[in-house]
Amino acid sequence: MSYHIINIDTNSCRLTCHHGQLEYTDGLSPPKCLPLEDIGAVVLCAFEATLSSNLLIEMAKHRIGFVLCEHYKPAALLLPADRATDTPLLRHLADMPTTLRKRLWEKTLDAKCSNQAILAESWNPRHENLPELKRLAQSAKSSREAECARLFWGIFADTWTTSSFRRDRKGEGVNPLFNYAYAILLSCILQYLFALGIDPSLGLFHRPREHAAPLAYDLMEPFRSAFEANVARWVEQEKLQPTDDSPIGVITKNYRQHIAKTLLAEVTYHDKQMTLRQAIEAVCRTFRQAVLQQKSGPYQPWKISTIKWVGS
Prior knowledge:
Number of helices: 10
Oligomer: single chain
Distance between the termini: 20 Å
Helix content: 40-55%
Strand content: 15-25%
């Protein structure tokens, strides 16, 4: 099982592949090597890195997500060319009935909103907006995703930052922390979708567009709370005991190491203890079964059953 998230931010380095291993050299220290089969994703923030074409090809064969960043913000994802390797699965996904597509998305949304409510309660159990968030999370309201998000981020702001905080992908403050965390999650989701022969260009709710992976955006929704929990944990830690002189919202080496560990956190899925990464794989497998069987029953999104693992 591949599990390492490799973060590379050295300004000048060279990445190559020899005998199935990623080789990193910076000209200052001895080369460092890691088997590709042990790598879950590579996040490259180096400004002058040199890459070999053989490395990119071998990474694609191993279904390794490769995130290219500009100023520590995701700018591109390099993906394998064989986006779908299972023809019957692709046909079922493309021809999925509207009712089934809607039901699968509703189950995804149920898990996302439920996770938001559980996480918000763990942050601030006496917040005045928490009862409304919990009520909406259990409702069938068509606008509940947007309303839950508004309440959830309001509780986050009141608990960890200031009331003026707004979650915005292009925003400042701690927004870059979330952008980076979601990039790690997206890379992991894509890895398993490709490994299972599921084409991420055919989504449930997110609309197809150029250079996008809407199905990955769909399936990652319930898992966002796991990363949001660790972002909050990081903000809390930095307020109490800063690791360096950088502002809290700056993507530092320490932060990247902190957030990458989220995939290795212990969670519960179907009454079994496993890492979050294993839970992501298991969810992708249930989705695959649901598509092939043309039934929503097999698909089981991840729901938080305990908050004790947060930050571990």
